[in-house]
Write a structure and sequence with these properties.
By secondary structure, this protein is an alpha/beta fold. The chain contains three helices and ten strands; from the N terminus they run βαβαβββαβββββ.
Length: 152
């Protein structure tokens, strides 16, 4: 299973669409918030067969879109948040609790900085912002129970 992860597109959603369209075998797409309008445009552009998950960021105002989302893909529990409610500008300590709660992968944004941390039996990942660097995103591959994550 191949998952593309984006965050903080801030109007640069066409880069995300180009990456989705030019990546072989995309099984799911995740957006970690900021901007909901971008998420709506991305969702319109990708094939319906590809599941698309997204959350609100600190610049989004929505009563219908969750701030946090828990999903399962490829047999792995994934927690998605923008991160501003978890103090990620000061570090990922609060997000590490999600790994201890049983999540295999924790995804966040907000800082605009790429980051990947391996802790316990999980991964905490921020794909970075596409609004400043068009190619900031992440690829997660899940195969035979193993998780590989790569920052692009």
């Amino acid at each position: 299973m191949k998952i593309l992860v984006f965050s903080d597109t801030h109007g640069s959603f066409m880069h995300a669409i180009d990456i989705i369209n030019n990546t072989d075998r995309v099984d799911a797409v995740i957006h970690c918030g900021d901007m909901l309008h971008d998420c709506i445009e991305i969702e319109k552009a990708i094939p319906e067969a590809i599941p698309f998950y997204y959350v609100c960021g600190n610049n989004d105002l929505s009563f219908d879109t969750p701030r946090d989302l828990s999903i399962e893909l490829g047999g792995k529990k994934i927690f998605i948040t923008h991160g501003h409610l978890y103090g990620v500008r000061r570090g990922t300590e609060m997000l590490k609790n999600k790994i201890y709660e049983g999540f295999d992968i924790v995804l966040y944004g907000h800082t605009h900085q790429k980051n990947i941390e391996y802790c316990k039996n999980g991964i905490i990942l921020n794909p970075g912002s596409m609004s400043f660097y068009a190619n900031n995103y992440a690829v997660i591959e899940i195969e035979n129970g193993a998780v590989r994550a790569k920052l692009m």
